[in-house]
Amino acid sequence: MTANGAEEESGSLYDVLVLGAGPGGENVADRARAAGLSAAVVESELAGGECSYWACMPSKALLRPVTARADAGHTWGLRRDRSLPLDVQDVFAHRDEEASHWQDDGQVEWLASAGIDLVRGHGRLSGPRRVTVTQEDGTVRRLSARQAVVVVTGSRAVVPDLPGVADARPWTSREATSASRVPDRLVVVGGGVVGVEMATAWAGLGSRVTLLARGSGLLPRMEPFAGELVADALRAAGADVRVGASVTEVARARPDGPVTVRTDAGQEVEADEVLFATGRAPRTEDLGLETVGLEPGAWLTVDDTLRVTDVADGWLYAVGDVNHRALLTHQGKYQARIAGAAIAARAQGAVTADAWGAHSATADHHAVPQVVFTDPEVTAVGLTADEAERAGRRVRAVDYDMANVAAAGLTRDDYAGRGRLVVDVEREVVVGATFVGSGLAELLHSATIAVVGEIPLSRLWHAVPSYPTLSEVWLRLLETYRDS
Ligand SMILES: Cc1cc2nc3c(=O)[nH]c(=O)nc-3n(C[C@H](O)[C@H](O)[C@H](O)COP(=O)(O)OP(=O)(O)OC[C@H]3O[C@@H](n4cnc5c(N)ncnc54)[C@H](O)[C@@H]3O)c2cc1C
Ligand SMILES: NC(=O)c1ccc[n+]([C@@H]2O[C@H](COP(=O)([O-])OP(=O)(O)OC[C@H]3O[C@@H](n4cnc5c(N)ncnc54)[C@H](O)[C@@H]3O)[C@@H](O)[C@H]2O)c1
Fold it and tell me: Which cysteines are disulphide-bonded (predicted)?
């Protein structure tokens, strides 16, 4: 027995055990190894996780040709090609490549090269610092951890339990990112990020898309103009976008027949496939959480060092989607770097919980960046004006029409977009930024640096954007703030 009461079974005792080999899990194990700790990850499907096979990578591979064609169709000298059909089979072939053909050999090789053991099977907690793995052949392997167990089991799509759903065989984000046939008609339910990205992709690939979103607009967690600009572009691309539409029922009378989707407003839409992009649930329902006093199926609440708050002795951590802080790959990887460093520091009694320190995921509260890869792109970091006001901050929002930036006229003949800074008027620092428009994804990091660095506006005047680039929106926004 070890000091922690863990059994010393040959090859089964590690410093750190990680449940889930998605981007968060791989990175936390890597950071633990880099700090000199032994680490194993347990994975029940494919090493690489949702992001690699059914989320970020395949979705962006479907979107890029669609947005590139939209850009080309509005570029002088290429405009006649606006209706040029995409080579859909080529798009699918590239998507399959980006999803590594749903094989994880590359990830397995990388884990081995980093000195991380991979244990394949379904992992469950079986008490403090203990994990039981049911392997593919049915055998059970018991593992234990000296320092920490990190839960990084991610999230899954939620399909609402509506009448007719089971028989309708709806798509979730998994089918929407991996399908290799373009449905003639597709209904997308949900106006969040998955809904608008997949509506953009499949409309571009040739489906007649109807997007049904409840509430007053698309992308409800972002500045309202973001959803409005994306809705305008989707409509221009031929999609039928209906807001204020909550789906109440679906029906597919014959397995090979069409599906009918009904809303609370009495609307009825017939389609070949229906995608539910209606949010995510944590993958914690069959994880043995009850063996350590936690509720199965719940999101795991953590402190800023990523330790689960409701577990004594601080040995359980949760990173990535499963802690519900920010359901984004880059933010999960950030948390993984912090958690790995915190676990190693705690082992030596040297952890520091200072904000913005090496062991604190402070950015989760102030500066989560996100790019929505639609046409136009939506990019945002920090607080929206509404969030800042609801938090009791004294802020001023300043806006600028992206079409008036000199580079916009060089980019597209129909450039539509808007930039917004949310400025804390007491400290004169940027606490939020949103840029919507074509070609803006790479601009976002400048705003992330301004928010994280709390750079005073007086200093930002000296950060001179190159001419003629879309980054000049920064200068125009500073002028607008000064003059308003
Ligand atoms: C369609 C779509 C597009 C997206 N696009 C982007 C994007 O462009 N950019 C971005 O930043 N984010 C994007 N996201 C979000 C991103 O995919 C997630 O934030 C990210 O995958 C979370 O990483 P994770 O490591 O927490 O979990 P996951 O990637 O979900 O990995 C968890 C892993 O744990 C394994 N697992 C679960 N339970 C067990 C168990 N009991 N035992 C063993 N293994 C287990 C799973 O099999 C999985 O491999 C997108 C999401 C969707 C749905
Ligand atoms: N590019 C990116 O960064 C990217 C891309 C895709 C996903 N993601 C992440 O994945 C997460 C999940 O995205 P999501 O879009 O599935 O969830 P979401 O929670 O963002 O949006 C779901 C939407 O569905 C609506 N909805 C729910 N039930 C409905 C019903 N019956 N009828 C009509 N509308 C209904 C909700 O009101 C909500 O607006 C997001 O938090 C996002 O961060 C990121």
Answer: 51-56
DSSP code of residue 307: B
Decide: 181 and 92 in contact? Cβ < 8 Å. no
CB under 8 Å to 390, separation ≥6 — which residues?
none
Q: Please state the residue numbers annotated as binding site for FAD.
A: 60, 123, 153-155, 321
Helix (H/G/I), strand (E/B), else coil: 444: helix
CA distances from 204 to 68, 208, 234, 274 (A): 10, 9, 10, 17
Tell me if 123 sits within 8 A of 133, measured CB to CB: yes
One of 3.40.50.1000, 3.30.70.1140, 3.30.450.40, 3.50.50.60 is the CATH number of 11-48+104-155+282-363, namely 3.50.50.60
Task: List beta partners, residue 275.
Answer: 171, 188
**Residue 374 alpha carbon to ligand 2 centre in Å:** 14
For 165-279, CATH gives 3.50.50.60
Task: Please measure the distance between the N-terminal and C-terminal CA atoms of the chain and give it in whole angstroms.
Answer: 69
Query: Measured from the CA of 25, which atom of ligand 1 is nearest?
Result: 25
Q: For tokens 């840029």, what's the residue?
A: 435
Please, is 324 exposed, middle or buried when counting C-beta atoms within 10 Å of its C-beta (0-12, 13-18, 19+)? Answer: middle
Give distance in angstroms: CA of 455 to centre of ligand 2.
32
DSSP secondary structure string for all residues of 52-76: HHHSHHHHHHHHHHHHHHHHHTTST
Torsion of CA 54, 59, 62, 65, to 10 degrees: -150
Helix (H, G, I), strand (E, B) or coil at 281: strand
Rg of the chain (C-alpha set): 24
**May I ask the CATH class of domain 376-483?**
alpha beta
Tell me the CA–centroid distance for residue 49 and ligand 1, in Å.
5
Q: How many residues does the chain have?
A: 484
Q: Does 376-483 match 165-279 at the fold level?
A: no
User: Mean pLDDT for each 10-residue chunk of the chain (484 residues)?
Assistant: 42 94 98 97 98 98 96 90 84 98 98 98 98 95 98 98 96 98 98 98 98 96 98 97 97 96 96 98 98 98 97 96 98 98 94 94 98 98 97 97 98 97 98 98 98 98 98 98 96
Quick one: tokens of 340?
Answer: 């790995």
